[in-house]
Design goal:
Shape: globular
Strand content: 5-15%
Number of domains: 2
Number of helices: 10
Structural class: alpha/beta
CATH topology of the largest domain: Rossmann fold
CATH superfamily of the largest domain: HAD superfamily/HAD-like
Distance between the termini: 6 Å
Largest sheet: 6 strands, parallel
Helix content: 40-55%
Order of helices and strands: EHHHHHEHEHEHEHEH
Radius of gyration: 17 Å
Strand order of the largest sheet: 3-2-1-4-5-6
CATH class of the largest domain: Alpha Beta
């Protein structure tokens, strides 16, 4: 029986992957730095703290890691105030919050950024836990990341559904023993076939998720 739902934030609840695609370039431009490096590819599976460390090491060595961290998160927080939910998300979360299931967000993003975005849409209080992979310094391709979320909810992985959009996260959740629902996300198009084959279910929108969850409860 399913007792918990673990939601990714970016690309799953929020239509925000474009921010991840260009935040590094925006930050570097603010520093007067240009690059031809494909940072989208470099950062595709990194936690935000790893991305910040990469920027500091390769582009702004004169700045302390703490300074770069603070500047990047200030930039992100401003952007996330304006982030929109993906279609059907608000209705889905509101409905789930009335059901006997624990709701959790597990994101590679900074916890404060997650809370800012969810609060804007009146959803932060619908989740019992808002967790960041930064708390345990692990990426989502590591099943320990999902064990961490399950432990916080005091549930077994087999009692949890994970809703994700990225291949490396789907892989980590499957290794952890969770039931995985993959959400269609245009930025993950190149991996869609692999995601479909790996996930337990693949959905186009959150209305389909409601149908799956109703069968699992």
């Amino acid at each position: 029986m399913i007792k918990g739902c673990i939601f990714d934030l970016d690309g799953t609840l929020l239509d925000s992957m474009h921010v991840w695609d260009d935040f590094a370039f925006s930050y570097l431009i603010s520093k007067g730095i240009q690059t031809n490096e494909n940072l989208d590819e470099v950062f595709s599976t990194l936690r935000m703290e790893e991305a910040v460390a990469y920027l500091q090491k390769h582009y702004v060595q004169k700045e302390s890691l703490e300074t770069v961290h603070d500047e990047v998160y200030a930039l992100l927080k401003k952007r996330y105030i304006h982030m929109e939910l993906k279609p059907g998300v608000k209705e889905c979360i509101q409905k789930l919050s009335t059901m006997p299931v624990t709701l959790c967000v597990l994101s590679a993003n900074h916890k404060e950024v997650c809370e800012t975005a969810l609060k804007k849409h009146g959803l932060s209080n619908k989740f019992s836990y808002i967790l960041s992979c930064e708390d345990i310094h692990l990426s989502k391709d590591d099943p320990a990341c999902f064990y961490y979320a399950c432990e916080k909810m005091q549930l077994k992985p087999a009692e949890c559904i994970v809703i994700e959009d990225a291949l490396h996260a789907v892989s980590g959740a499957k290794k952890a023993g969770c039931y995985v629902v993959a959400v269609k996300e245009k930025s993950q198009q190149k991996d869609e076939e692999k995601i479909r084959s790996m996930a337990d279910a693949y959905i186009e929108d959150m209305q389909e998720l409601e149908e799956i969850l109703c069968r699992k409860f």
